[in-house]
Write a structure and sequence with these properties.
4-stranded mixed beta sheet; globular; alpha/beta; binds iron/sulfur cluster; 8 helices; 6-stranded parallel beta sheet; Rossmann fold
Length: 209
Amino acid sequence: MNENIVKRNELLAKTVIKGLESRNMTGYYAATKEEALKKALELIPKGSSVSMGGAMSVHEIGLSDALKTEEYNFIDRDAYEDKRAAMLAAYDADFFLSSCNALTSDGILVNIDGNANRVSAIAQGPKKVLFVVSLNKVCPDLDSAMKRARNVAAPVNVQRFGLKTPCASTGTCMDCKSPDTICCQFLITRFSRHKDRIHVILVGEDLGF
Ligand code: SF4
């Protein structure tokens, strides 16, 4: 990677980490996917129960595969026939893994959800939440973070799931109320009441969308 981009990433990560700290959350910088995986495995003790929402970034650094071993209790919701039991197990986990749709340079996290399993677990339930977030999702302020979530992340997600929404054909948010909309719940995490609950690994390589 170009050394000027590397330098900019380090500086931006420092700014975001400072913002997260001011909000009772903890941030880390990993220049590469490999460093991000190493840091995540340092933070999750062996034997932990771990659940996750749909988080491409977590898959892309290899974390979900690394946790699907006998050393961890990985709660794989796809393996549950009873989806309600899977959801309740996820809420009771030691760790919930997630990415976010956007975050601000001063540390506010923005997430949009259709079923709300992800945003509800971020808000409360699992003992700790570990985010893996690429620096390409950092926006200057909350307004631009909301715009990114609705105009970049959401239209890509509807394509991923083959949903019938206006943004699936326009590529940008049309503020729909379609039955397939994934924009049912918006979670803005501006402060964590519980110190040491929310941890964010910022990654210098592009991940997710
Ligand atoms: S509100 Fe509708 S059109 Fe806008 S991003 Fe969400 S699903 Fe797409």
